[in-house]
Specification:
This protein is α+β, with helices and mostly antiparallel strands. It is built from seven helices and 24 strands. The strands form six sheets. Strands 2-9-8-4-6 form a five-stranded mixed β-sheet, with no helix packed on it. A five-stranded mixed β-sheet has the order 22-21-20-23-24.
Length: about 400
């Protein structure tokens, strides 16, 4: 069977098919033009912004470009870096690295990504404390946040750090960096405390920090040489030319309730003026557990002057009945004239304060210690003991102190 198709209908069918083919080609063209890889001069950065935790961290950003490109930071935020900072056509992964935040305040770094033809995109990196909510850092054992340490010979302090952060570092408060040192070894924080070099105490803080508020701190309160309860340095001094005459300070104070380390000198007029009052204190309180260790800061070449002073003041007198010394034990320390004030012995009790001028006067000086050699009371003011009133005032002060400590003699 044959069907007859009119010529005009056949023509319409040809036109319709042609339009359909043209429409399909146009659609495909438009479709392909939407893909940046098939367009000329495109530049894509993904993502264009990063929010990062306050810890040391890295993130990845993708750059796709039809041509070579480079990255420049707008500003100078050295806590944030990118690598690589340039690339060739195609897709490149760049690494964004941030350092730990030094405090809790947010910070932003802005980068310009530019192609060789001038296309430009921006990358913003923001680091915030809030972004670190899932991180923690603490010391094992929940130690006391404030540590009291002695003036000398402090053993290294070890603190084990518990954290889920990839890294942490140590920070010492700026005003303590000359005497506090912190070091990280694995998961442990080591703190080293230098010997104190002054009468007053000092404070400093050591922090283990991963960044921002993700940290743990401990403060160190170091006793000064004159602070209440501070252990004194033990020493042993001989009588020059006398064998086996070494006398340790600890030998004296361990046999007493209260011991006075009495620093004096034969050339010191204020010392001579107050010496009779020291004798009065010794006479009254020695039966109640009071002892004195006298140290005379003397000058090389003037040994005879010292011996004459001791004898003239009866400090070597002996009780004829018992054969014992009437007064306390004393020893000289001889130094060159220019070192009579600042020397190894005075540094044990003043540190560098005599050298720096923090303390001007050092004689006479009175250090009262307990049976363990710990400071209980110190009298080291710039005394001018030239009048009866000044001498009596200092004497009454000391007598009141001793009577209360020894619970005797009208105290």
């Amino acid at each position: 069977m044959f069907y007859f198709i009119p010529s005009n209908t056949h023509q319409q069918m040809k036109t319709s098919n042609y339009k359909s083919i043209l429409l399909i080609c146009l659609s495909l063209t438009l479709l392909y033009s939407c893909d940046p890889s098939d367009q000329t001069g495109y530049l894509v950065v993904a993502p264009v912004s990063l929010e990062m935790a306050p810890i040391a961290a890295t993130r990845t950003v993708t750059v796709r470009s039809s041509e070579s490109w480079f990255i420049e930071q707008i500003g100078n935020e050295d806590w944030c870096t990118v690598y690589p900072d340039k690339g060739t056509p195609g897709e490149t992964q760049i690494t964004v690295t941030v350092t730990p935040m030094p405090d809790v305040w947010p910070r932003i770094a802005l980068f310009s990504v530019t192609s060789v033809s001038g296309l430009e995109k921006f990358l913003e990196v923001e680091q915030t404390d809030e972004a670190g909510a899932n991180y923690f850092l603490e010391f094992y054992g929940d130690p006391n946040p404030s540590m009291l340490v002695y003036p000398r010979d402090v053993n290294p302090v070890k603190l084990l750090v518990n954290t889920n952060t990839p890294s942490w570092n140590t920070i010492v408060s700026e005003d303590a960096r000359d005497w506090l040192t912190a070091e990280r070894k694995g998961d442990t924080l080591f703190v080293y405390v230098a010997d104190v070099d002054r009468p007053e105490g000092r404070e400093g803080t050591v922090t283990a920090s991963a960044g921002g508020s993700i940290s743990a701190s401990i403060s160190f309160d170091q006793m000064g040489l004159h602070d209440f309860g501070a252990p004194t340095a033990d020493f042993s001094l001989p009588i020059p030319g006398v064998p086996d005459s070494d006398l340790a300070f600890s030998y004296v104070y361990r046999r007493a309730r209260i011991t006075l380390l009495y620093m004096s000198a034969s050339w010191c007029p204020d010392c001579s003026n107050f010496l009779p009052k020291v004798k009065e204190l010794y006479e009254e309180f020695s039966p109640h557990g009071f002892k004195i260790y006298g140290v005379f800061m003397e000058i090389d070449g003037r040994e005879q002057v010292y011996y004459d002073y001791i004898n003239n003041n009866g400090l070597n007198d002996v009780d004829e009945t018992t054969g014992n010394k009437i007064w306390w034990e004393h020893r000289p320390v001889f130094n060159a004239l220019e070192e009579r004030k600042i020397n190894d012995f005075t540094r044990m009790f003043y540190g560098d304060a005599l050298l720096t001028g923090e303390v001007n006067n050092f004689l006479p000086a009175f250090f009262f210690v307990d049976g363990g050699g710990n400071i209980r009371k110190v009298y080291v003011d710039n005394y001018v003991l030239r009048t009866d009133a000044a001498i009596s005032s200092l004497y009454r002060n000391m007598r009141t102190y001793l009577s209360r400590q020894l619970e005797c003699c009208g105290g």
